[in-house]
Amino acid sequence: MFVSNAYREYMSASKSGRKFLAKSSGDEYDGYLSSIESLPKNEGSLSRVSLGIHEIPMKLIVGAYSAARSRNFSGNFMPLLSKHSELATKWQYLYTHQQ
Which of 58, 70, 71, 95 could form a disulfide with 35, with the two C-beta atoms 3.0–4.6 Å apart? Predict the structure, then answer.
């Protein structure tokens, strides 16, 4: 039962993501998630320092680390890949687990 619900929920989320992307296509914002890799590098920036593991509130998460991964999701964090993709399978497993 959960598998069919997970599939329907993925398809609904993917549809929502495509609508968000289409609505944002004319803006300067391209409709995809932001990515840290796509930010301009400052010549005066310091090196990376590990701070360990910290909890980050969900409201502070605005994108993905890699530019490649950010293209898998619309700006509203909805998936954009095909229902046959690895992301779709993982998304459905996660949905099932959360239910």
Answer: 70
